[in-house]
């Protein structure tokens, strides 16, 4: 059985974070493992508070996994402090993984800030160890220093981020916060191209960024090419959003249990 490790924060309601990642791994029939970066009190309405895991404990979790079970892929999500970023970067340097996907979670969908704005620069050394990073438009604005208003801006932001991260790292800049479609822009060694998507009218779900990156990591572990893994993940995510259960007082969680239907 293929294995995927998630390094991310928690969500006690199960809609995002490590809990959502493990559900996504199960839906893709890979064996999920997890190293917790932060304990977060959150629900569909917001994030009242969170507490980072100590760097020593974070490192020990990753070492416990890597010393025992080989990872076919790693998904990295919320890193709440510069110390956490450096800890994970050091671990990825020691344990070179075949596939690393990073979802650079800088704040929650409801606006709660995690990694301090002055510390975002330390992410790029970690990015250089990834096969793919998956920022959304607000994250790309911060990482590139641009304000994305057009497709051309989005393409330029992806180019800037990739140059800062290192040429081996591909960028999937997610367009869900931009325009009327859900088109994403992929920039890798083969150049840049748009991966078109369809927006579901009236559908607002949370945890989509966590789920997409975890689904991509799962598909990479299963042996699909990068573009194939992204395509399969987007098809799965659309169905998970379409069938999202009506739970909570805010944006509902995804239906993580759906199977790939492409």
Describe the structure.
By secondary structure, the protein is of the alpha/beta class. It has one domain (3-242): 3-Layer(aba) Sandwich (UDP-N-acetylmuramoyl-L-alanine:D-glutamate ligase). Helix content is 36%, strand content 18%. It contains 8 helices and 10 strands. It has helices spanning 17-27, 55-66, 82-94, 123-127, 137-144, 151-165, 208-221, 226-242; strands at residues 3-8, 31-36, 38-43, 46-52, 73-76, 100-102, 132-133, 170-173, 184-188, 191-195. Helix 1 (17-27) packs across helix 7 and helix 2 (55-66) packs parallel to helix 3 (82-94). The radius of gyration is 17 Å and the shape is globular.
Strand content: 15-25%
| CATH secondary-structure class | Alpha Beta
Structural class: alpha/beta
State the shape: globular
The largest sheet is:
8 strands, mixed
Give the tally of β-strands: 10
CATH architecture: 3-Layer(aba) Sandwich
Domain count, please report it.
1
Quick check: average pLDDT?
92
Radius of gyration: 17 Å
| Helix share, percent | 25-40%
Q: SSE order, as H and E?
A: EHEEEHEHEHEHHEEEHH
Q: Which segments are poorly predicted (pLDDT under 50) over 5 or more consecutive residues?
A: none
Order of adjacent strands in the largest pleated sheet: 2-1-5-6-7-8-9-10
Span of the ends, CA to CA: 22 Å
Q: Going by CATH, what is the homologous superfamily?
A: Ribokinase
Q: At the third CATH level, what is the topology name?
A: UDP-N-acetylmuramoyl-L-alanine:D-glutamate ligase
What is the tally of helical segments?
8
């Amino acid at each position: 059985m293929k294995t995927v490790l998630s390094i991310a924060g928690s969500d006690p309601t199960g809609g995002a974070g490590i809990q959502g990642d493990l559900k996504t791994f199960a839906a893709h029939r890979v064996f999920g493992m997890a190293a917790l970066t932060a304990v977060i009190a959150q629900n569909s309405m917001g994030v009242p508070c969170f507490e980072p895991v100590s760097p020593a404990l974070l490192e020990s979790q990753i070492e416990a996994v890597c010393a025992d079970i080989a990872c076919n892929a790693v998904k990295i999500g919320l890193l709440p402090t510069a110390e956490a970023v450096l800890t994970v970067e050091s671990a990825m340097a020691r344990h070179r993984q075949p596939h690393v996907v990073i979802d650079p979670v800088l704040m929650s969908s409801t606006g709660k800030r995690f990694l301090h704005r002055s510390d975002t620069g330390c992410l790029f050394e970690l990015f250089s160890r990834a096969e793919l990073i998956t920022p959304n438009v607000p994250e790309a604005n911060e990482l590139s220093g641009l304000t994305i208003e057009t497709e051309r801006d989005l393409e330029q932001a992806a180019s800037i981020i990739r140059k800062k991260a290192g040429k081996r790292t591909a960028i999937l800049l997610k367009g869900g916060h931009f325009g009327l479609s859900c088109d994403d822009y992929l920039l890798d060694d083969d150049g840049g191209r748009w991966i078109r998507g369809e927006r579901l009218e009236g559908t607002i779900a949370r945890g989509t960024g966590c789920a997409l990156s975890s689904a991509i990591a799962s598909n990479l572990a299963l042996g699909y090419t990068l573009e194939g893994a992204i395509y399969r993940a987007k098809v799965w995510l659309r169905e998970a959003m379409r069938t999202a259960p009506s739970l909570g007082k805010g944006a509902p969680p995804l239906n993580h249990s759906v199977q790939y239907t492409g």
